Amino acid sequence: MPLISPPRRSAWLWALPALTLVLTLSLTAFAVRLARDGATRSEQARLERLSDRVLGALRQRFDSASQAVHGARGYFTTAPLSTPADWAAYTTAALPAVGPGLVGLGYVERVRRSDIPVLEARMRMLGVPDFRVERAGTREIGRAHV
């Protein structure tokens, strides 16, 4: 009895599924890359919008604080011998116009160590009985504490 050989399959019968697989995987990889690039661009745009908003808010707050400082400078130019009560009235009136973020507004007077007793006496006369200047240290300029 003669052996019957199986029918020969064409090379295309084997190559077609492999080619389909390679083509499908390539298209999938391309689609994934497009989706990833789109998501990256979207996230970058969102981050830029968010950073622009944050920077705008920070600029507004710093501009507001800068205006308060310039206003205080103008105040002392016109009223250099003001009292602590005058300063408190000025800051109470100015702070609501400054906006959020500014907690307080104060001033510092630089005084030579030799002039500390005069400053303390002047401040007590102006109605700040607990005013004192810290004398620790060796610097020529001291720091005041109320």
List the helices and strands and how they pair.
Elements: H1 11-78, H2 84-98, H3 116-125, E1 132-134, E2 143-145
Antiparallel strand pairs: 1-2
Describe the protein in words.
The chain has 146 residues and is mainly alpha-helical. It is rod-shaped, with a radius of gyration of 39 Å. It is built from three helices and two strands, in the order H-H-H-E-E. It has a two-stranded antiparallel ribbon with strand order 1-2. Strand 1 and strand 2 form a beta hairpin. The protein has helices spanning 11-78, 84-98, 116-125, and strands spanning 132-134, 143-145.
Q: What distance separates the N and C termini?
A: 120 Å
Following the backbone from N to C, one meets helices and strands in this order, namely: HHHEE
- Helicity range: 55-70%
Rg, please?
Answer: 39 Å
Number-wise, the strands total 2
- In the predicted model, the low-confidence regions spanning at least 5 consecutive residues are none
- The spatial strand order of the largest sheet comes to 1-2
The profile of the biggest β sheet is: 2 strands, antiparallel
The percentage of residues in β strands lies in under 5%
SS element count, helices = 3
Shape: rod-shaped
Mean pLDDT: 81
Structural category is mainly alpha
Question: Descriptors for this entry?
Answer:
single chain; 146 residues; mainly alpha; two-stranded antiparallel sheet; 3 helices; rod-shaped
